[in-house]
Amino acid sequence: MTATIFFYILISISIGLYFSKRVKTGDDFIRAGRNLPFIIIFAMVFATWFGAETVLGISATFLEEGLSGLASDPFGASACLIIFGIFFAKKLYRMNLMTLGDFFRKKYNRHIEFTISILIIISYLGWISAQITALGLVIFILSDGIITKELGILLGSCIVLTYTIMGGMWAIATTTFIQMVVILIGLLLVSFEIVDLAGGLTNVIAKANFDGKLHVLPSIESLDFLLWIAAFLTMALGSIPQQDVFQRVNSAKNEKIASIGTTLGGLIYLVFATIPLILAYSAFIIDPAGTSRLMEIDSQLVLPKLILLNTSDWIQILFFGSLISVILSTAAGTLLAPGVLFTQNVARYLGLELGDKNFLKATRISILLFTVMITIYAMSSNENIHKMVENAYRVTLAGAFVPLVFGMFWKKANSQGAGLAITLGIFSWLFLEFFFADLIIEPQLVGLVFSFIGMIVGSLFIEKAK
């Protein structure tokens, strides 16, 4: 079984390397020449969120907290894609930008472009680390502990880096489509067998409902409700100003594909995100004592151990093949984003002017360096996968969301307003995060409010005062 899984990884790398032949220019590398059809865009958008967080992270959280613990993902994550597809995709596509950072330069100025690009790059640290951490965990499990989790993280980083750095968006697009097919078929077939062992789907749902796991919202009068709203908004809005979502939209053949592919990808993601939840609760029904023990050690191990102990070899191959598929597709797509932003929007701001060939080389070097940073962070962090993802978008919610939205939909938005929005949003968030983290209201939401105020005041009054 293990040999088959590693053979599948080798095939994924080989496909990515094969399609690297299509990369001739920086445009090919970053957005596949804006030539991708609907099915590929849909697959890439779906795979944007269907990663380690979905299979291992939210399933573990569901066992502990129920649906009310999943405000950020899948509810906030799917909302982000739907909102982006309906309101942002067409407008941004028409602008024919290379990166999201280019929007901030065109709408505001180079300083805003540089600052927000840095904020977006920082946000990727936790998100990609979550995928690499999960890949390390899977390699650790498949090797029966022979390969340590830390070494697994290192190997996982090398695997993702290899075909991302060579093939760029072409490699990501082709491998993601294949991986999406594996994900959907694999998880469906696995769920049929596991749910059957748990007494059928009706029994699993009835048991979860009886145990209070199917309440989506906490009590409105409770503090938990405010925390739910904060987690939902952080993911739903904080994920919108992100290069990885934008670059998938920007690679489409036309704006209609960009919009529909993104919206449908968000809807289908929400549907299929329920499968890991059903599998996780089936584990609790099949082996309550063993599941409880694993939750005390690491709840992220529940699903992998369930599959290894209760299913046939071919089901194990399907599950771990699906799991590796979701991790590879998500990690590769998001790894490209910060490297591109750094080369296009940060390096050029600092005075490094590059021709197309040198731009392509510099982007690949940026991806390599960022991978090193992510690997170090993943190996040293004690946070679980769900927590890494939840924390990733606080910075973009507080500092990037308002300048993007107002820049697109408010004609009076200007550089003074954007600058003040970033300053007030980031500093108020960080101040509360470090000194008043126990406030009833989450710090990043306060940052969002201050960012909104900064945009209004800066755009309407500072310009007039001058």
Task: Provide the CATH architecture of the largest domain.
Answer: Up-down Bundle
* SSE pattern: HHHHHHHHHHHHHHHHHHHHHH
How many β-strand runs?
A: 0
CATH class of the largest domain: Mainly Alpha
Question: Could you tell me the mean pLDDT?
Answer: 85
CATH homologous superfamily caption of the largest domain? Sodium/glucose cotransporter
CATH topology of the largest domain: the name is: Sodium/glucose cotransporter
Major beta sheet, specifics? none
- Overall structural domain count: 2
Determine the N-to-C terminus distance.
70 Å
Judging from the principal axes of the Cα atoms, what is the shape? globular
Topology:
Elements: H1 2-19, H2 26-31, H3 38-49, H4 52-65, H5 71-94, H6 100-107, H7 110-142, H8 149-197, H9 201-210, H10 223-238, H11 243-249, H12 255-272, H13 274-286, H14 288-298, H15 302-310, H16 313-347, H17 356-380, H18 385-392, H19 394-399, H20 401-409, H21 415-435, H22 443-465
Helix pairs in contact: 1-8, 1-16, 3-8, 3-11, 3-12, 3-16, 4-13, 4-18, 5-10, 5-12, 6-7, 7-8, 7-16, 7-17, 7-18, 8-13, 8-16, 8-17, 9-13, 13-14, 16-17, 20-22, 21-22
Task: Give an overview in words.
The protein has two domains: 2-386, Sodium/glucose cotransporter, CATH 1.20.1730.10; 410-466, no CATH class. 80% of the residues lie in helices and 0% in strands. It has 22 helices and no strands. It has helices spanning 2-19, 26-31, 38-49, 52-65, 71-94, 100-107, 110-142, 149-197, 201-210, 223-238, 243-249, 255-272, 274-286, 288-298, 302-310, 313-347, 356-380, 385-392, 394-399, 401-409, 415-435, 443-465. Helix 7 (110-142) runs antiparallel to helix 18, helix 9 crosses helix 13 and helix 21 runs antiparallel to helix 22 (443-465). The termini are far apart.
